[in-house]
Write a structure and sequence with these properties.
Helix content is 64%, strand content 5%. The protein is mainly α and 152 residues long. It has 2 domains: 73 residues, Multidrug-efflux Transporter Regulator, Chain: A, Domain 2; 58 residues. It has a 3-stranded antiparallel sheet with strand order 1-3-2. A hairpin with a 5-residue loop joins strand 2 and strand 3. Helix 1 crosses helix 2. The longest helix has 42 residues.
């Protein structure tokens, strides 16, 4: 089955302009064109478009995605190179995930902090709290904040 750019965009929940941009940047060398220059997408192109979107969402720059696609177009001789690219991206996403988890933990602490302040009507409530007043899951964050205050 074949698709127009509009049909494939709808299927992937992308803007047609995004696909045109990808084509302009050389990410779609596999896309055929009609005699009138209209892009014709095949069912088999969906997997490649999905990996392009995945790599983009992971933060990979367009130039690196192009390198990956070029390697794919070269065939099996580039499997090792493609695996190395995917492994680096995987590692980078794991690192992003770790940082986001740390950010989320701090936000959870601050949410608790301000809920306590709201209930007391003042942030000064925290000046009198002891470690026993702080939930165990936030002791690490509270300790880091206290240490920073003491070093100032």
């Amino acid at each position: 089955m074949t698709y127009t750019i509009g049909e494939i965009a709808k299927k992937l929940n992308l803007a047609s302009s995004t696909l045109r941009y990808y084509d302009k940047e050389g990410l779609l060398p596999f896309v055929e064109r009609s005699s009138g220059g209209i892009r014709i997408f095949q069912e088999s192109d969906l997997n490649t478009l999905e990996i392009i979107e995945c790599l983009k969402e992971s933060g990979m720059p367009i130039a690196e995605i192009k390198t990956f696609i070029d390697l794919c177009m070269e065939g099996d001789a580039t499997i090792e190179d493609r695996l190395a690219i995917i492994q680096r991206r995987y590692d980078a996403v794991l690192e992003q995930q770790k940082k986001l988890q740390e950010t989320l933990h701090l936000l959870e602490y601050k949410k608790w902090y301000y809920e306590q302040a709201r209930a007391a009507g003042t942030c000064a409530i925290h000046d009198t709290m002891t470690a026993e007043d702080i939930p165990l899951e936030f002791l690490d964050v509270a300790q880091k904040i206290l240490e920073r205050k003491q070093t100032k």
